[in-house]
Write a structure and sequence with these properties.
Layout: H1 9-24, H2 31-38, H3 42-54, E1 58-61, E2 67-70, H4 79-87, H5 108-126, H6 129-132
Antiparallel strand pairs: 1-2
Helix pairs in contact: 1-3, 1-4, 2-3, 4-5
Amino acid sequence: MNGAIYFSEAASLALHATGILAGAGDDPITAGRMAEALGASEAHLAKVLGRLSRAGLVSATRGPHGGFRLSVDASKVTLRDVYEAMEGSLDIQHCLSGLPLCDKPSCALGSLFEKVSTEIMEGLAAITLHDFRFHSET
């Protein structure tokens, strides 16, 4: 999406799942238990966890006492890191449509979207998983 930061369902699930895992410490949590806590599809969450695993943020253990856990220090990973693992690098653009017509510094919408996007990116970068962790019954 051009111009504004977009939070897909997958990115939202990734943020919340890593928040749950950060709150669990070293205790593994199954995708099913997290999906139930999040009110999400277990199949969709499993795909999200797979992407987070490929990004090196979570790891999985198989077996009756298995599940997912963070594979990184929660105090060193930000919400921006999790977001970018799902959506790619954040890119601030000045225009929602990216049209050459709007490539003018005087465009009120362009400067507004740049300001808001910058604030969101800085906010995500300022919050670690340790700060965002959930303590729940998962």
